[in-house]
Amino acid sequence: MSNTLPLRIYYEDTDFSGFVYHARYLHFFERGRTETLRALGVDQRSLHEAKGGPFGFVVRCMTVDYHAPARMDDEVEVETRITAVKGARIMMAQRLLRESVVLCAAEVEIAFLARGRAQRLPGELVRKLAILTKD
Length: 135
Fold this sequence. Notes:
By secondary structure, this protein is α+β, with helices and mostly antiparallel strands.
């Protein structure tokens, strides 16, 4: 199961060639991860402000594979799938698609932190994340 976020490519996302600048894909993927968590009922602001925190997520590792360029005014989708949840880590697979064609793909490892240190994910959060690990 995956979560999908529709986006449009704007002029500000492109470089002199008219293609999306390579680092902008990371922004799109970040939005996809945020909206996936939101769709699961994970309130990142509440986590950050919770007693014993602040709690939050950081990218620990990311591998990006560029297949084809996105262009200004394209309508695209960010697809996010949680592939594993282990201890303090969440592994995700993400793709940016235009009309079902993969333009860019990423494998992402997210760490859960409390006061700047890795901490095991709380049970309630693990249960919410498990929804997207079932295929």
